[in-house]
Design goal:
Blueprint lengths: L9 H20 L3 E4 L2 E4 L5 H15 L1 H27 L9 H8 L3 H28 L5 H25 L8 H34 L19
Antiparallel strand pairs: 1-2
Helix pairs in contact: 1-2, 1-3, 2-3, 2-5, 2-6, 2-7, 3-4, 3-5, 5-6, 6-7
Protein backbone atom coordinates (compact mmCIF):
# COMPACT_ATOMS: atom_id res chain seq x y z
CA UNK A 1 0.00 0.00 0.00
CA UNK A 2 1.21 3.48 -0.85
CA UNK A 3 0.66 5.36 2.39
CA UNK A 4 0.88 8.71 0.62
CA UNK A 5 -2.41 7.85 -1.09
CA UNK A 6 -4.14 7.09 2.20
CA UNK A 7 -3.04 10.03 4.33
CA UNK A 8 -3.67 13.76 4.40
CA UNK A 9 -1.41 16.55 5.54
CA UNK A 10 -1.86 18.66 8.67
CA UNK A 11 -2.60 21.68 6.48
CA UNK A 12 -5.37 19.81 4.66
CA UNK A 13 -6.79 18.73 8.03
CA UNK A 14 -6.84 22.36 9.24
CA UNK A 15 -8.59 23.52 6.07
CA UNK A 16 -11.13 20.71 6.50
CA UNK A 17 -11.86 21.80 10.06
CA UNK A 18 -12.35 25.40 8.93
CA UNK A 19 -14.60 24.20 6.10
CA UNK A 20 -16.82 22.28 8.52
CA UNK A 21 -16.95 25.20 10.96
CA UNK A 22 -18.04 27.53 8.15
CA UNK A 23 -20.89 25.22 7.15
CA UNK A 24 -22.11 24.78 10.72
CA UNK A 25 -21.79 28.49 11.48
CA UNK A 26 -23.73 29.32 8.31
CA UNK A 27 -26.62 27.15 9.54
CA UNK A 28 -26.84 29.11 12.78
CA UNK A 29 -26.34 32.51 11.17
CA UNK A 30 -29.02 31.77 8.55
CA UNK A 31 -31.63 32.31 11.27
CA UNK A 32 -30.97 36.07 11.26
CA UNK A 33 -32.11 38.35 8.47
CA UNK A 34 -29.66 41.11 7.59
CA UNK A 35 -29.62 43.99 5.10
CA UNK A 36 -26.86 44.98 2.70
CA UNK A 37 -28.03 48.37 1.50
CA UNK A 38 -31.55 47.77 0.24
CA UNK A 39 -31.00 44.04 -0.24
CA UNK A 40 -32.26 41.57 2.37
CA UNK A 41 -30.10 38.51 3.04
CA UNK A 42 -29.56 35.92 5.72
CA UNK A 43 -26.65 36.10 8.15
CA UNK A 44 -25.13 33.01 6.60
CA UNK A 45 -23.99 35.22 3.73
CA UNK A 46 -21.03 36.47 5.76
CA UNK A 47 -19.51 33.00 6.19
CA UNK A 48 -20.94 30.51 3.65
CA UNK A 49 -18.94 31.87 0.66
CA UNK A 50 -15.77 31.11 2.62
CA UNK A 51 -16.57 27.41 2.15
CA UNK A 52 -16.41 27.89 -1.62
CA UNK A 53 -13.08 29.68 -1.32
CA UNK A 54 -11.70 26.79 0.76
CA UNK A 55 -13.07 24.35 -1.81
CA UNK A 56 -11.21 26.27 -4.54
CA UNK A 57 -7.96 26.23 -2.55
CA UNK A 58 -8.14 22.50 -1.80
CA UNK A 59 -9.03 21.55 -5.37
CA UNK A 60 -6.27 23.76 -6.78
CA UNK A 61 -3.52 22.38 -4.53
CA UNK A 62 -4.54 18.76 -3.83
CA UNK A 63 -6.93 18.03 -6.68
CA UNK A 64 -10.48 16.73 -7.01
CA UNK A 65 -9.91 13.62 -4.85
CA UNK A 66 -9.13 15.66 -1.75
CA UNK A 67 -11.93 18.10 -2.59
CA UNK A 68 -14.33 15.15 -2.76
CA UNK A 69 -13.25 14.02 0.72
CA UNK A 70 -13.60 17.60 1.99
CA UNK A 71 -17.14 17.98 0.63
CA UNK A 72 -18.43 14.70 2.05
CA UNK A 73 -16.74 15.39 5.40
CA UNK A 74 -18.42 18.80 5.51
CA UNK A 75 -21.75 17.21 4.63
CA UNK A 76 -21.41 14.58 7.37
CA UNK A 77 -20.42 17.07 10.07
CA UNK A 78 -23.16 19.51 9.09
CA UNK A 79 -25.74 16.71 9.05
CA UNK A 80 -24.60 15.58 12.50
CA UNK A 81 -24.90 19.12 13.88
CA UNK A 82 -28.37 19.67 12.40
CA UNK A 83 -29.57 16.25 13.58
CA UNK A 84 -28.35 16.81 17.14
CA UNK A 85 -29.93 20.26 17.20
CA UNK A 86 -33.24 18.84 15.97
CA UNK A 87 -33.21 16.06 18.57
CA UNK A 88 -32.44 18.50 21.37
CA UNK A 89 -35.19 20.80 20.10
CA UNK A 90 -37.70 17.93 20.35
CA UNK A 91 -36.80 17.06 23.96
CA UNK A 92 -39.06 18.96 26.40
CA UNK A 93 -37.31 21.76 28.23
CA UNK A 94 -36.82 21.87 32.00
CA UNK A 95 -39.52 23.53 34.09
CA UNK A 96 -37.32 26.56 34.71
CA UNK A 97 -36.30 26.87 31.04
CA UNK A 98 -38.06 29.79 29.38
CA UNK A 99 -36.28 30.14 26.04
CA UNK A 100 -37.93 27.40 23.97
CA UNK A 101 -38.95 29.86 21.26
CA UNK A 102 -35.44 31.24 20.83
CA UNK A 103 -33.85 27.78 20.78
CA UNK A 104 -36.43 26.50 18.28
CA UNK A 105 -35.83 29.51 16.01
CA UNK A 106 -32.16 28.51 15.71
CA UNK A 107 -32.20 24.71 15.86
CA UNK A 108 -35.72 23.79 14.78
CA UNK A 109 -34.82 23.69 11.11
CA UNK A 110 -37.79 22.51 9.04
CA UNK A 111 -37.13 19.14 7.34
CA UNK A 112 -37.93 20.68 3.96
CA UNK A 113 -35.34 23.44 4.39
CA UNK A 114 -32.75 21.03 5.81
CA UNK A 115 -33.17 18.67 2.85
CA UNK A 116 -32.97 21.54 0.36
CA UNK A 117 -29.85 22.85 2.06
CA UNK A 118 -28.05 19.49 2.05
CA UNK A 119 -28.89 18.68 -1.58
CA UNK A 120 -27.96 22.17 -2.79
CA UNK A 121 -24.68 22.14 -0.86
CA UNK A 122 -23.51 18.77 -2.19
CA UNK A 123 -24.38 19.51 -5.83
CA UNK A 124 -23.10 23.09 -5.75
CA UNK A 125 -19.83 22.09 -4.07
CA UNK A 126 -19.11 19.26 -6.50
CA UNK A 127 -19.90 21.46 -9.50
CA UNK A 128 -17.50 24.07 -8.10
CA UNK A 129 -14.73 21.46 -7.66
CA UNK A 130 -15.34 19.91 -11.08
CA UNK A 131 -15.13 23.25 -12.90
CA UNK A 132 -11.95 24.15 -11.01
CA UNK A 133 -10.37 20.80 -11.89
CA UNK A 134 -11.28 20.79 -15.59
CA UNK A 135 -10.29 24.42 -16.15
CA UNK A 136 -6.92 23.85 -14.48
CA UNK A 137 -6.16 21.02 -16.91
CA UNK A 138 -7.40 23.02 -19.90
CA UNK A 139 -5.38 26.12 -18.97
CA UNK A 140 -2.25 24.26 -17.95
CA UNK A 141 -2.40 25.64 -14.43
CA UNK A 142 -2.63 29.26 -15.56
CA UNK A 143 -5.43 31.76 -14.91
CA UNK A 144 -6.27 30.63 -11.38
CA UNK A 145 -8.30 33.81 -10.79
CA UNK A 146 -10.57 33.10 -13.75
CA UNK A 147 -11.33 29.53 -12.72
CA UNK A 148 -11.83 30.51 -9.07
CA UNK A 149 -14.49 33.03 -10.12
CA UNK A 150 -16.14 30.92 -12.82
CA UNK A 151 -16.27 27.83 -10.59
CA UNK A 152 -17.95 29.91 -7.89
CA UNK A 153 -20.52 31.23 -10.38
CA UNK A 154 -21.25 27.67 -11.52
CA UNK A 155 -21.42 26.22 -8.00
CA UNK A 156 -23.43 29.05 -6.46
CA UNK A 157 -25.86 29.02 -9.40
CA UNK A 158 -26.54 25.32 -8.90
CA UNK A 159 -26.83 25.85 -5.15
CA UNK A 160 -29.36 28.67 -5.52
CA UNK A 161 -31.37 27.08 -8.33
CA UNK A 162 -31.80 23.95 -6.20
CA UNK A 163 -32.20 25.45 -2.72
CA UNK A 164 -34.72 28.23 -3.23
CA UNK A 165 -37.39 26.31 -5.19
CA UNK A 166 -37.09 23.27 -2.89
CA UNK A 167 -37.09 25.30 0.33
CA UNK A 168 -39.31 28.26 -0.46
CA UNK A 169 -41.68 27.35 -3.31
CA UNK A 170 -45.20 28.16 -2.13
CA UNK A 171 -43.83 30.31 0.67
CA UNK A 172 -42.18 33.08 -1.34
CA UNK A 173 -44.08 34.42 -4.39
CA UNK A 174 -42.93 32.69 -7.58
CA UNK A 175 -42.08 36.06 -9.14
CA UNK A 176 -39.60 36.77 -6.31
CA UNK A 177 -37.69 33.47 -6.41
CA UNK A 178 -35.62 34.27 -9.53
CA UNK A 179 -34.52 37.56 -7.97
CA UNK A 180 -33.55 35.86 -4.72
CA UNK A 181 -31.47 33.32 -6.66
CA UNK A 182 -29.86 35.99 -8.81
CA UNK A 183 -28.86 38.19 -5.88
CA UNK A 184 -27.37 35.24 -4.02
CA UNK A 185 -25.17 34.33 -6.99
CA UNK A 186 -24.17 37.93 -7.74
CA UNK A 187 -23.30 38.90 -4.17
CA UNK A 188 -21.44 35.68 -3.37
CA UNK A 189 -19.43 36.08 -6.58
CA UNK A 190 -18.57 39.65 -5.60
CA UNK A 191 -17.49 38.25 -2.23
CA UNK A 192 -15.16 35.82 -4.05
CA UNK A 193 -13.74 38.60 -6.24
CA UNK A 194 -13.02 40.84 -3.25
CA UNK A 195 -11.29 37.97 -1.44
CA UNK A 196 -9.36 36.90 -4.53
CA UNK A 197 -6.08 38.75 -3.81
CA UNK A 198 -5.90 36.97 -0.44
CA UNK A 199 -6.96 33.64 -1.97
CA UNK A 200 -4.20 33.83 -4.60
CA UNK A 201 -1.55 34.41 -1.93
CA UNK A 202 -2.89 31.60 0.24
CA UNK A 203 -2.87 29.13 -2.68
CA UNK A 204 0.69 30.11 -3.61
CA UNK A 205 1.85 29.65 -0.01
CA UNK A 206 0.02 26.30 0.27
CA UNK A 207 1.69 24.95 -2.87
CA UNK A 208 5.12 25.96 -1.60
CA UNK A 209 4.49 24.51 1.85
CA UNK A 210 3.01 21.22 0.62
CA UNK A 211 5.21 20.80 -2.44
CA UNK A 212 2.08 19.83 -4.37
CA UNK A 213 0.23 21.17 -7.38
CA UNK A 214 -2.08 18.37 -8.52
CA UNK A 215 -3.52 18.08 -12.04
CA UNK A 216 -6.49 15.72 -12.30
CA UNK A 217 -5.40 14.07 -15.53
CA UNK A 218 -7.43 10.89 -16.11
CA UNK A 219 -9.21 11.52 -12.81
CA UNK A 220 -12.49 9.76 -12.04
CA UNK A 221 -15.09 12.34 -11.10
CA UNK A 222 -17.26 9.73 -9.42
CA UNK A 223 -18.45 11.56 -6.31
CA UNK A 224 -18.99 8.32 -4.38
CA UNK A 225 -15.30 7.32 -4.25
CA UNK A 226 -14.95 9.05 -0.91
CA UNK A 227 -11.92 7.17 0.40
CA UNK A 228 -10.02 7.06 -2.88
CA UNK A 229 -7.25 9.50 -2.02
Amino acid sequence: MNNNKQTVSVLFMLFSILFCVCLIAANVLETKQISVGSISLTGGFIVFPVSYIINDCVCEVWGFRKARLLIWTGFAMNFFFVAMGAICDLIPGADYWNNDAGFHAIFGLAPRIALASFVAFVIGSFVNAYVMSRMKIRDGGKRFSARAILSTVAGETCDSVIFFPLALAGVVPASELPWLMLWQVVLKTIYEVLALPITVRIVRAMKQHEGEDVYDTDESYNVWKVFSL
